[in-house]
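Supplementary Note 2. Why include the ligand at all?

Several targets in our set were suspected to adopt different conformations when bound, so apo predictions alone were not considered sufficient. For every target with a known small-molecule partner we therefore ran a joint prediction. The input for NAP is given below.
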Amino acid sequence: MSVEKVVIVGSGPAGLTAAIYAARAALKPLMFEGFSAGGLIPGGQLMFTTDVENYPGFPEGVMGPKMMKMFRDQAERFGTRFIREDVTQVDLSKRPFTVRSDENEVQAHSVIISTGARANWLELPNEQRLAKAGGGVSACAVCDGALPVFRDQELVVVGGGDSAVEEASYLTKFARKVYLVHRRDALRASQIMQERAFKLVEEGKLEIVWDTQVTDVLGDEFISGVELQNIKNNETREFPCKGLFLAIGHTPNTELFKEFLDLDDGKYIKLKTPGRSFTNVDGVFAAGDVADHIYRQAVTAAGTGCMAAIDAERWLAAQGIE
Ligand code: NAP
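The joint prediction is reproduced in C-alpha cell form.
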C-alpha cells in the first residue's frame, strides 16, 4: 500500500484551506470529506448557514454552501483528492498512520485533523425545522445576529455559560431587548462575564429569565415565540420573540482520536504549543474548531488550516519526505 504524504480528515474551512496549501506545496493531499458523521455533511457547519457576512472578501455576503463549494473547487484545482466517506477508525499509535472508512484504508505520513465541533441544540422538532429553514433560530449569534431580520427585535438566548453571555451581550447591539433564558438560578459564566451581563440588565438591555427552559419553538416559516417552562413550578407560558439563539455548548468531533491525542476538559484537541497546530503525536496536526473553543469562526478556522498545512509540510521535510 502506498503511503500518502498528508491525509486531511474533515472538509470545513480549516480542512479545505489546509488542502489548498498542502496541494500547492505538491503534497497531493487526500481528504476524507465526510458524509454524515457528527450530524455534519461535507463542507461542515457552514453548509447549514445562510448568509455569511463576516468572511473578508465578500462585501455583499455569500451563502455558506456556496462559499464551501468555492473552497472545495480551489482545493481540487491544485490536485486535492477527495473521499466522500466518514472516517470510522484511525491508528495514530505508529507511523505510517492508518485512516479507515467503510470502503477505504489508507496509510499516511502525516494527518491533519479538522473535524470541527457541532453546536449543541435543544433537539426540539420545531427548533430544528426553523433552524434549517433560516427561520430565525441559530446556534451562532456572531454569525447571524447582525442580519436585518433581528434588528430592533426581542430576541431570546438560551444558556448560562460564557458563550451565552457573550452572545446575548453581542445581540444587545442590535436588538430591542435580549432575554437570556437559563435553566438554573445562577450563571455558569465566569465572574467577568457575569458582571457584564448584570450591567446590561441594569441598563435595561438584557433580562435574565431564571430557572426556565425552552420547551417549544413557535412559528410557521419564521419564529414568532417560544414556549417557556419554569422548572421550579412547571408552569408554561408563550413568550413572543423574533429570534432564538442557542448557546448551550459545543461538542468537538474528537471521538475517533481520543485514544491517541490529548484532549482538554471540553474534549477539544489540546495543542502542544498554543498558537501552533502540533498535537502530542508527532506528524498529527489539528486545525479549526476541533481545537478551538474560543473563536469558532470560519476565518479563524481557515487561518489555522493554513498553519497546519505549513507545519505538516515542514515536519515532512524534516523527516526527509518531500
Ligand atoms: P458551557 O460553559 O458548557 O455552558 C453551557 C451552558 O448551557 C450552561 O449554562 C448550561 O447550563 C447550559 N445548557 C447546557 N445544556 C443545556 C440544555 N439542554 N438546556 C438548557 N441549557 C443547557 O459552554 P460555553 O458557554 O459554550 O463555554 C464553553 C467553554 O468556552 C467554556 O470553557 C467557556 O469559558 C469558554 N468560552 C469563553 C469565552 C470567553 O472567555 N470570552 C467565550 C465563550 C466560551 P448549566 O449551567 O445548568 O449547566
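Residues 3-118+250-318 form a domain with the FAD/NAD(P)-binding domain fold (CATH 3.50.50.60). The chain has two domains: 3-118+250-318, 121-246. Comparable summaries for the other entries are listed in the accompanying table.
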